[in-house]
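Question:
Write out your own:
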Amino acid sequence: MFYIRDYAVTLINAQKLIDRVESWHLTKIPSQFKNLTTIGDINLAVNAFEYKIDPTDHWKSPDAFFDEGFGDCEDYCIAKYALLHSLLGLSSNQMCVLVGEDIDRQMHALLLVYKGSEVPVLILDNRTSLIHNTEHMKWFRPIFAVNEDGVWLYS
């Protein structure tokens, strides 16, 4: 389990942070997702789940997110991460969860997807069905990024 509110303390030990996500992968792909073939399809399908604030900010496994049918921003990110890995073959070096403050100074998490040097880094956000790129991120102040391989701090 990972808690956004204590990120400054938790980041001292990056491996503990990574291990707090119960699993970055699905044990089985839910049937409603098996025919999705694009990043946009996966983004829309996951965004259709109910948004519910978790007062403890527990980071759910993708299996728990799909079983429960709801989550908050980091849960959407991890669910999309798992589906992009399972269905489209994206690797951990192509994706990370970016945590920071939005324009209203609220903590928020986004999924960043890197498809290659010729394509800008994509932003998948549970607040919109549109996929933007990082060139349009003036509204977000990153604090750290994490995936199953590591943690990166922003200054």
